[in-house]
Amino acid sequence: MSDYPIDITVTPEVKAFFDEATNTISYVVKDPDSRHCAVIDSVMDIDYAAGRITYDNADEIIAYVRENGLIVDWLIETHVHADHLSAAPYIQQKLGGKIGIGEQITTVQDTFGKVFNEGTEFQRDGSQFDALFVDGDTYRIGNLEAVALYTPGHTPACMTHVIGNAAFVGDTLFMPDGGSARADFPGGDAGVLYDSIMKVLSLPEEMRLFMCHDYAPGGREIQWETTVAEEKANNIHVGAGKSKQDFIKFRTERDATLDMPKLIIPSLQVNMRAGEIPTDKDGKPMLKVPLNGL
């Protein structure tokens, strides 16, 4: 990993927010030497059956930022989530900051623009976001330098964000007893995911890893922080030297048994638009349900 400007001597302050409805963990990551921070993988609440959007999770983050006098520089999306809706534009309206995602968002937009039969007015160039990251890009949170690493496989646009001695891995990895995320969405690839996981696990062993999801295997308490060393030793899907061939076989067979995420249809429509809710021809918020499209 020497090609990346990573400084593990810096320890950012990390505050986690767990959303029970989607098992998502959002983060506020603060520069230890200033009041500047980033918000990673925020959640907008949806009652899908009722067609109702609310912002309880986002308001909790906003309250925390305001109570601590923080300045939001960035709103980071580790990827286009299929299991929850992003609250990035709502938080941006309240607190400012730039919304950033990996540049391969354009691949996701092209793929799902077709699935949802979006018209030509839906831009597929990533212009809904303020910044598109490529592998090795750096950005600043106050005085703190962050690095975006390209880690596809779960989706084509997945990135791991390394901020000092903390890495936010999105869905590239789960806690050691959770293993890894699926790789069967359009553009996903189990072999590519394995390579991305190995990229993450080539970071320094003491690097803290922060998960985007946890499903409490075996009924344990929810957890979201581990280390590279712990994952290398104990991850049930890739740890202890498990081979790429074995991982591909396991992941492919397991993915074939999984149901689609409950919120995949609204999540993709919103998240490929940087968290904005699509509208109909009259400007009213509206979601589509493509039949047999996924």
Description:
The chain is α/β, with parallel strands linked by helices and 294 residues long. The protein has a single domain, classed as Ribonuclease Z/Hydroxyacylglutathione hydrolase-like (Metallo-beta-lactamase, Chain A, 4-Layer Sandwich), CATH 3.60.15. The chain has helices spanning 56-67, 88-95, 105-115, 190-201, 228-234, 244-255, 264-271, and strands spanning 13-19, 24-30, 36-40, 45-47, 52-54, 71-76, 98-102, 131-133, 138-141, 144-150, 159-163, 166-168, 208-210, 225-227. A 6-stranded mixed sheet has the order 1-2-3-6-7-8, with helices on one face. The chain has a 6-stranded mixed sheet with strand order 9-10-11-12-13-14. A two-stranded antiparallel ribbon has the order 4-5. Helix 4 links the parallel strand 12 (166-168) and strand 13. The longest helix is centred in the N-terminal third of the chain and has 12 residues, at 56-67. The model has no long low-confidence stretch (mean pLDDT 96).
Topology at a glance:
Blueprint: E1 13-19, E2 24-30, E3 36-40, E4 45-47, E5 52-54, H1 56-67, E6 71-76, H2 88-95, E7 98-102, H3 105-115, E8 131-133, E9 138-141, E10 144-150, E11 159-163, E12 166-168, H4 190-201, E13 208-210, E14 225-227, H5 228-234, H6 244-255, H7 264-271
Parallel strand pairs: 3-6, 6-7, 7-8, 12-13
Antiparallel strand pairs: 1-2, 2-3, 4-5, 9-10, 10-11, 11-12, 13-14
Helix pairs in contact: 1-2, 4-6
